[in-house]
Amino acid sequence: HVQLVESGGGSVQAGGSLRLACEASGNTYCMMWFRQAPGKERTGVAGIYSSGETYYLDSVKGRFAVSQDNAKNTLYLRMNNLTAEDTAMYYCATGRYCQLSNLANVDSWGQGTQVTVS
Fold it and tell me: What are 91-104's pLDDT values in tens digits?
């Protein structure tokens, strides 16, 4: 079990950018970002292994970039060219694998940070 704390959410206009951060209390195999809008399912958007290998949801590929600072146990998500469809609560998560479509793989969840695009 790892404690996760997200930050960096906020309100931006369409086409704008935002950078999220997630501080973890310890090391893990894969760190991921999920998002969920009200009344919709939670969906994985990006993940990164400790090795640096990354995975993305197709709809964010080329716009979002996930990275990590291993020394600080911190995960980042740079989001560019945001659209209204990106509006959601964004959650940091850890898991054994970078499986963006498998919620059962998640070991720990952050509290979430809201991203609103208008």
Answer: 999 999 999 999 99
